[in-house]
Give the backbone structure.
Amino acid sequence: MTVLCFLMGTYGDVRPFIALAEAFSNEPVTLAAPPEFEDHIRSHGVNYVKIRDSLTAAVTDSPEGKAFKNANVFNGLSRAVGLFKPLFSSWRDDIRKIISETNPKVIVLSTFPAMCALDIALDSNIPTIIIHTVPARPTSHLLPATVGMGYSAPFQFLNSFVWNTSMKAAGSLNASILREIGAEETKRLGATSLTGEYIQRFTTAPFEVETLYIYSPLLCPKPGDWTDKDHVTGPLVVHSAAAPLPENIEAFLKHSESANRPVVFFGLGSMLGIVFSASETTTLISKCVEGIQSTPCSIIVSTKGMPSDAVLPDVTNHADRILFTDAFLSHSLLFPRCAAVVHHGGSGTTHSALVYALPQTLEPTDRPAVSLIVPCHADQPFWAAAVHRLGASPAPLAPRGLTPAAFAGRINEIVDDRGNVMRERVKEICLEMRKEDGVARAAQIISNLIG
């Protein structure tokens, strides 16, 4: 084995690593990930190794995850420790075992594996690289993406202040978790690489490692106060042939096209299960279904990731305009046939919606799909603000502000003449982003470590 990648998160976090693996046609690449991603990874012909515990499953199904979702300022720290300590401990055991058994030439850590097990990778003396989907090094030019405050404060000193505050909070939380895990590992294993010295410098150790930021510099340019170890590569986009769209989706698209009815795609991915309860999911989807009837559009609503006890509204009388699906849909095939893509604003989906806004073979009459971002938490307000500030989307629509009238208003803004400027900006960004070839740049940087 040459390249061993450890990843954790959602499908949007997995797809870039599949793209990266496909770039190493002459070098074996293995992706280590939770079991829910095995079939998807193997379907692309990429080697797979199991990491036992899933972050998504822990957040949505475990008592600790449910408690964490309902945390407040008074109990947030203890509940975060309760959720992440067993996960970090389990992931560390798996990462240590997989590295020992596979002996790779390069180790690639995504964000969560880097947070909990960077010391294990460094202790192996195997060249290690970190991959982030959001800015992770402090800077005066941007707000931290994961604090949910948008793209940038009005003044640079405020950006720096928020970075310093958030880094101290995150460092304190991580140190308390790692300290407990280190004590337990010493008892179980007789030793641990989580020494007091390493924990003390944990907030600086990640910045001593080559780091790839796999997003577009069009959306977020590399800040001038970063170092040569920080590489903004562009997005990692899968180029292999996609599975055809399901027959019912294809039929729905053709019917809408023949009726000259613009198609809207609505999909919040795993957020439906992670952020929203069953009743909240039902309410959210019902508002979108009601709102779309005040537009000239059809809508495809993805229910993938929805809580199992959520109830979908009855749309029998509107079956020609409203379609629910829990199928896995290829962005590259679906998005170019849409007028609007409503999504949560995760890094992966944000870039997919822009890269695939137009067909690969352009016709003069092609109109790009414009994103309407419904940011739910973490880095999503950051990416929503990044797209909107470029004039490539209407103002983001927070879930709590999503009413049928507000939803219809944003969609109409996209599909009628008011959307002409946005469509032109999306087209420009789409064509420029396709030139970035983040996969090739990331692969070259990793190859340099192989030697």
About this structure: The first helix runs from residue 11 to 23. The chain has a mean pLDDT of 92. The chain is about 45% helix and 10% strand. The first strand starts at residue 3 and ends at 6.
